[in-house]
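Narrative of activities, Objective 1.

The group set out to show that a structural description can be obtained from nothing but a protein's sequence at a throughput compatible with the screening campaign. Below is one input-output pair from the validation batch, recorded exactly as produced.
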Amino acid sequence: MASLLYKLGKLAARRRWWFISAWLAVMVAVGGSVAAFSGTLSNTFSIPGTESQQVLDELQESLPDAAGGLGTIVFTTDDGGEFSQEQRAAVAQLAADLGEHDAVKSATDPFELQAQLDDAPELIAGGEAELEAAAGQLEQGQAELDAGRAQLEPGKLQLQAAEDQLAAAKAQAAQAEAAGQSAMAAQIRAQLEAQRAQLEPQKAQLEAAEAQLDEAERQLRDGRDDYESGVADLEAAKLQQQSSEGVRFVSAAGDAAFMQVQFEKTMMEVAKEDREAVQQMTEAALVGGLNAEYSKDIVEDISQLFGAAEIIGIAVAAAVLVIMLGTLIAAGLPLLMAVVGVGVGVGGTIALSGAVEMSSISPVLALMLGLAVGIDYSLFIVNRHRSQLLAGMPLAESIGRATGTSGNAVLFAGLTVIIALAALAVPAIPFLTVLGLAGAATVAVAVVVALTLTPAMLAVIGKRILSKRAWARAGRSGPAAAGTASTTADPASVNDPKRSWGRVVTRSPWLALLAGVALLGVMAVPATELRLGLPDGSSEPADSTAYRAYTQLGESFGEGINGPLIVVADRPGGLEGTEADERLLELSRELRALDHVTAAVPFGTSEDGRTAALQVIPEEGPAAESTEDLVHHLRAEAEALEASTGVGVSVTGQPAMQIDVSDKLADAMPVYLAIVIGLSLILLLLVFRSILVPLLATAGFLLSLGASFGAVVAIYQWGWLDSIFGVHDPGPILSFLPMILIGVLFGLAMDYQMFLVSGMRESYAHGEEARAAVVSGFNHGAKVVTAAAIIMVSVFAGFIFSHLTMVRPIGFALALGVLLDAFVVRMTLIPAAMHLLGKSVWWLPRWLEKVLPDVDVEGAKLAAAAPQEREPEPVGAR
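Output recorded for this entry:
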């Protein structure tokens, strides 16, 4: 590999303008792709297959009207007093105007809703009074009906008796006719007709009276049905009113109100222009003394990846480069290479955001890593090239040799980072897969830039890569013609080895080991109380409108309003609407009876009536332990709730999502660690041809990792040094930070392991005694590794105060992790342990030594085959 890279470096130097033109073309193409194909980034996270995501998908399918994104506008007054009528009217008009916007499905008028809630008890009391009066009327009507039927009964009996007499007379007439007494029969019939004529009016009166009584009974029966229906409606209204207890849209003090704006699309799909339109319409509607704050769903703008804090980090890195390299040209080259790398890597990532759902942290992490490794990787090659020039090596030969040696180390170091990042795809979590692949691709671009563009630029710069003072110290005005110059010369080698840190460590190795392990161990203690969660409004900057909206809601309406749970109810089939509604309200009452629940309000039902949704508002915020306990309790008691109410329940919402995300990541962690550490151990085994060196490297990584976790917990979860780091609301740590930190830090830790220990390996391979090789190898690479680590820490530290608050703990964890790993582990613990182990640290079974390929990471074969004649330098190199 060293020989191949050597040839690549010389080709880049010889055809430098071809390589530079090719990279310019790539950057133009990427820029065009970003302009044409980039999409919207998001701060929402989902993991397919989790219960909360399945419930959310079901809800969006069965209740599409409730599927749109929801934002909140919080209103207050300048004087902190109650709202005036003018202000109330302005808010009402704003709700109507927002509802007319194409991107908005609806906007609530908080004062109207609060009035309905406030009027509900009085309306229920009025309904009870009306029902009580109706019950009295029904009782009186029944009594009157019974009296009327009692009065009618004697007349009916008399009429029946008269009809019985007529029937008897009719029978006598028939008998007389049969006996031949026609005259008598005719007389009887005449009497019958006369009597029947007398009875007809009486019969008609009785029938009319009975019809009136039947109508009265029907009316009474209808009234009784209406009364029973009214009783049922009243009970439902009572349950509905009870379910809304604790819910307010205007604070009890009357000094705050909030409007909910539901969009037609999900928040990830809502265009930036539409979010801005909502803000502009609101600002225009604010009359005198009325203020508005917006939830992060409305004001979230993640289009800007770079802020002032990140620029400061780059400035510090630039200062380190100038101090180390001595010229602006030399210092600017690694920075330029990093810019090219992140331009292509991050630009390519953003260009794919139109086709791939992408979280905002994906390009930010790629930017962070691309800058850090882009500077470091080019710096290693530039530093080697400068050392070789000072030793008298021809320019073209030096460029090729630097690419074949330090470039080889860059390649393998980059591979460890790429493996660690690409392995984030293994858990099959979509946003984590995109994040890992974006970071891995950007690091890969940084490696390719370092191996191709850096040699080309070195050829263009020529001897100006070194200052005149450096040439003067070397006793020459340009490169000497010493074709057999040492390939291992380094400015650090001129330092007194007896006073180097490597000598200090190896002079008292046990003290160094115990002190380093004790330091990292103590720092790791807080990690035992690590809690994970997802970002909410409390993590926004203290001076942001999103944070003010979040805190105002919590203060005026209770913390739970900021993180409600969504309970989806599957109602049994075959029930009428009223009975089904009663079951749902019964479930609401059961939910309100649970600990840590403020309210449980039904807010939607599917068209087929089988699925309904309730908003359960907990007592505390979404990150509170009591809220997490409530989610666990609801899921554990789902069967009991179904048995008591006949309704199946499932839970989603932000608190449920963060629990499921954390559990899923925890389940994926062992597989991820096995892949990352396993593949990296194999790679280190190939590079160092040792069993113990990779194991020491991994053990050291675990120590620095634990210390980093501990510091993150202490600052971002416990709130230590909160004023320094801008942590105004300590809380759970970002749920996917552990996996990101493990992957990135392991890859970067192996970078420094590669650059430091490869020098030790080279010294040992060239015949130096094992313990002496530790010191000489350390001195060989310590200066450049120190500068590289400071640069990387500076870049990461710039993100600690990023405008994207979600990135801050990641930047801190990476900055501290690199600082501890580079200076405590790689430059203290590893040399001390290797000194104690002596020659045995390089032990490798013979059978394995025969099997392993020789990757020649330090280019020893290149040194053995060094050309004896000076190579011609590129035209214009001077």
